[in-house]
Amino acid sequence: MNHTTVGVIGAGRIGRMHTENLVHHIPDAEVKAVASPHLDEGWAEELGIPGRSIDNSAVFGDPEIEAVVITAPSGLHCELILEAAAAGKHVFCEKPVALEPGPIEDVLKATQRAGVLLQVGFNRRSDPSLLDLVETVREGRVGDVHTVRVTNRDPKAPPIDFVKRSGGIFLDFLIHDFDTLRFLSGSEIVEVYATGGVLIDPEIGAAGDIDTAMVTARLANGALAVIDASRQAVYGYDQRFEVFGSAGSVAVNNTTTSTRVVSTTGGVVGRTPHDGFVSRYREAFIAELSGFLAAVRGDSPIVAGAEDALAAVRAAVAARESFNQNRPIRLAETAPVAGEGTTA
Amino acid sequence: MRTINVGVLGAGRIGRLHTENLFRMPGVRVKSIADPYADFGAWPPEGIETGIDPSLVLDDPDIEAILICSPTPTHADFTETAAAAGKHIFCEKPIDLDPERIRRTLEVVDAAGVKLQVGFNRRFDPTFSRVRQAVIDGDVGDIHIVKITSRDPEAPPVEYVQSSGGIFLDMTIHDFDMVRYLTGSEVEDVHAMGAVLIDPAIGDAGDVDTAVTTLKMANGALAVIENSRQAVYGYDQRVEVFGSKGSAEAGNETANRVTLSNKDGVGSDTPLYFFLERYQASFVAELEAFFASVRDDREPPVGGRDGLMSVLVGLAAAQSMAENRPVKVEAS
Hints:
The complex is a heterodimer of chains A (344) and B (332). Chain A is of the alpha/beta class and 344 residues long.
């Protein structure tokens, strides 16, 4: 098998997960170096990664490394992509690439000029159930798409520190859902209306964010869509999807780690959904990197690119504006000028 | 149990359904049915007076309670006349499409001191009642999100759409009432987005056939209603209430509980076809509740104010879609 040499920038929770997937589950990947300011040397050594550094040049400066996985803090994503592109390396970058369209447009151009690939971590695009759903839609089995529905509820609200710098619920959380609407419908988001509230934790409100949100969207193909999102579903990570059309509907429900069902006088009780994205999207996280490496070798197109990141961020920014102004916002209102239409 | 004499106005589909249910209900006797257009040749069975003039029912001093199942434009008039005659009233929704007219009618009802129940049958569906019970029991905690899926199996004739008041007043009105019922809270803000995706003739008639409506409730909860005039697989009626302690969800009901597995997949029959099948039990239960209210001199569980509120929300939704902005719901 043809090996692709990979470097990882950032070894936080997501970085370690991706690295472990590369080492354990993706046979055609060879992780040569990992760089992170707070690197756990023992962890990297145990994985058999030869290059271990607190300095990114261990990755960017190594001519043998063809592809870079960027899992550093979000605020650094764009500059790291630019650095990787300058070094001629293909890039897989976690979402969000940036919290506004302008910088994403810049990295899109830079990677194109450098002739390197840029894949974005929209993991749901690699989920077997969602791929199955999309194939069903593409085969025409639900007919023309009329409505698309996404339920996205985290098991536990994030720490307030995260909320303060995340860009808010629309950019750090619903960003996945905006991409999912595009992925499931095969169409573009034209208009959004967002409503929401602080129903879980007043601290989130004090930090200037909301914890419960609902977004209605109109798509270019005429379909309507709705996202309902919550920072905290006490029963687990609630991820459900439905596409309804002229010939029927197709849905993806929650999955569980076990199919055990207990029936007693008190009722019939099954397991709760997964406890978070790491376990719910385990296969997707492996498949998205596997797909990225296949694209690096020229075997297939990338799964999600900078254009997708851009479209999702535009929708998220429009949703935030819609919420702030309490009116529907057409993406065309905010899109043409990079960075405009964003408020603090 | 004391027997209550009942008269029915309107012998169309819903009038016949209610009347048939009354035949099997203890403590109730259907005395007469009036409908200017009905052919009473084959129905109802002998022993029930029939006629084309509503006075047959409204002027009969023996009749204690009436069911108004006639076309919507007659509801307010019949309700007022029946109230003035001291009769208790079960009226199909909506009472009227004009809130002012509903308010006047409710004043007449109040002055007469008679009971008025509005036909929001879904509140009496055993499945949705169980969801409401879970809310009351605190099983879902504070309510954060309510989701309603409400799709008809087939689009109505265009002539119906032209006189119905549009999707928000003829279809979503049930869902507005369901959100109020499930949350026990009032709708404050409405935003509706609609599209014509099923039948261009519906668009030509000035209506939409697909709609997504979001609501902000007085208790802070958010609600979303997804409507379609046509789900080819049957009547799609699902609700979910999500809150701080969990969620309560009701899926579709099928005629049986069979799962068929073969090499092509694992499947069941499609949902019960339409409201007559899906809400059969609720139609009986709503009338039982009405007659219990009459008999025990209690307020009916769904009153005139509920009829008014759902219309006010429906009008706000129609305005929201027309003006493409969120609209505040007028106070009752």
